[in-house]
């Protein structure tokens, strides 16, 4: 619960329903099955309480990812009996949750990562926000957290982004990282569907991932742990998917690698890298045709918005030039063979944070697979081209349906 809005002393003698109506605590006992029709999000009931202590904005070049936050947060509470309560924008503040809240014990948490950009006319834009909302709904539903009307939530996020627009530097490469988060708040140690939940959105101004130009990364293929498996939850953006990845990431870092590459199965299928999807450009073994390959959506990888954008752009702009665009399974051996036979053109990661991250080499089975960059080169031509195409749509240089212009 938002601490300053919770008059604790007034909670004690009231009935749970009355409590909800007056102060909306986040940790409640669910009232069980209900016949009341649950309400969806109602953007018209938004209330805004502005901060009285606005923060100073940092010089853009001092921004560090996820370290500083804007003045406000958006929050909406949900109960199984009532549905979504009125949305609120309030000053950014601590949450106060009962220590028995199910989020702390059973990882009832799903989240998103998206950005707001400022275009050359100073207008705030979101990039394919409906995709993030659809993914959050899918992730939430997978762990019995509530779902919501995506369009209504985008309306609220847009209002929030507009309110915080002074935090978005109007320079290419800069943006406001938005973190929509859903947590189960029911106070119980029983393992079951949460009877109450909280959605909140916080935001952090960010600079370009590579402030001084691209720096190609080195990967370590992880063969002693798996991130996801068929029938699991690797395709959902759940908090529970991320904590277990840190130790393999630290192990890779210890040996001097930037990220670890997740393989799957005896065949060592290449899946994804850190918090990015992976793309490989190589010449096809049989035809010699150029092929852009990424792993298929088989449930073991996250359905990245950047991944989808790259595939779509490649089908539109590269396929007519003779490229094959493939979503298919490929193994670490396929990649190594292509490198050995001089067929590997480029490898790059793709995600909201960096857009694209060029890969120099991959450590696998004690050897180094060279991913095709020339000495001294930090990014391949295709990687740079794709970044430009995506940025043009994110910053509104190319007017496109992927860009959602926030009303002023
Ligand atoms: C595991 C994982 N894969 C891929 C991605 C890339 O997804 P997106 O392009 O939507 O940022 C992310 C980042 O959200 C991620 O956490």
Automatic annotation (TrEMBL):
GO cellular component: mitochondrion
Needed cofactors: pyridoxal 5'-phosphate
Signal peptide: none
MF terms in GO: branched-chain-amino-acid transaminase activity
CDD domains per the UniProt record, alphabetical: BCAT_beta_family
InterPro entries assigned: Aminotrans_IV, Aminotrans_IV_CS, Aminotransferase-like, B_amino_transII, BCAT-like_C, BCAT-like_N, BCAT_family
Keyword Cell membrane tagged: no
Protein keywords: Amino-acid biosynthesis, Aminotransferase, Branched-chain amino acid biosynthesis, Pyridoxal phosphate, Transferase
N6-(pyridoxal phosphate)lysine: modified positions: 237
PANTHER family recorded: BRANCHED-CHAIN-AMINO-ACID AMINOTRANSFERASE, SUBGROUP IIII AMINOTRANSFERASE
Family statement drawn from the similarity comment of this UniProt entry: Belongs to the class-IV pyridoxal-phosphate-dependent aminotransferase family.
Protein name: Branched-chain-amino-acid aminotransferase
Species annotation: Lachnellula suecica
Gene symbol of the encoding locus: BAT1_2
């Amino acid at each position: 619960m938002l601490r300053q809005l919770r008059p604790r002393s007034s909670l004690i003698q009231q009935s749970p329903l009355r409590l909800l109506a007056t102060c909306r605590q986040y940790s409640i006992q669910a009232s069980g099955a209900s016949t009341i029709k649950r309400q969806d999000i109602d953007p018209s009931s938004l209330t805004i309480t502005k901060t009285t202590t606005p923060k100073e904005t940092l010089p853009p070049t001092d921004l560090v990812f996820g370290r500083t936050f804007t003045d406000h947060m958006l929050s909406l509470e949900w109960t199984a009996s009532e549905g979504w309560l009125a949305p609120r924008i309030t000053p950014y503040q601590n949450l106060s949750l009962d220590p028995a809240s199910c989020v702390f014990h059973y990882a009832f948490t799903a989240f998103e990562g998206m950005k707001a950009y400022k275009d050359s006319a100073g207008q705030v834009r979101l990039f394919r926000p409906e995709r993030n909302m659809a993914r959050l709904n899918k992730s939430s539903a997978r762990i019995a957290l509530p779902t919501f009307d995506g369009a209504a939530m985008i309306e609220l996020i847009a209002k929030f982004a507009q309110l915080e627009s002074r935090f978005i530097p109007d320079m290419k490469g800069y943006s406001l990282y938005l973190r929509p988060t859903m947590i189960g708040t029911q106070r119980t140690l029983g393992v079951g569907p949460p009877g109450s939940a909280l959605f909140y959105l916080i935001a952090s101004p960010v600079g370009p991932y590579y402030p001084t130009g691209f720096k190609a990364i080195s990967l370590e293929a992880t063969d002693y742990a798996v991130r996801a498996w068929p029938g699991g939850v690797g395709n959902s953006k759940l908090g529970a998917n991320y904590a277990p990845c840190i130790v393999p990431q630290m192990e890779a870092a210890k040996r001097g690698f930037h990220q670890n590459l997740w393989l799957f199965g005896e065949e060592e299928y290449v899946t994804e890298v850190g918090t990015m999807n992976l793309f490989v450009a190589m010449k096809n073994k049989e035809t010699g045709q150029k092929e852009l390959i990424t792993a298929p959506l088989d449930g073991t990888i996250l359905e990245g918005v950047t991944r989808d954008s790259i595939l779509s752009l490649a089908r539109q702009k590269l396929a007519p030039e003779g490229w094959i665009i493939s979503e298919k399974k490929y193994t670490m051996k396929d990649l190594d063979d292509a490198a050995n036979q001089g067929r590997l053109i480029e490898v790059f990661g793709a995600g909201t944070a960096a857009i694209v991250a060029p890969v120099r080499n991959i450590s696998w089975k004690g050897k180094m697979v060279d991913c095709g960059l020339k000495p001294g080169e930090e990014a391949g031509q295709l990687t740079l081209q794709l970044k430009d195409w995506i940025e043009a749509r994110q910053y509104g240089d190319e007017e496109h349906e992927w860009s959602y212009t926030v009303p002023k």
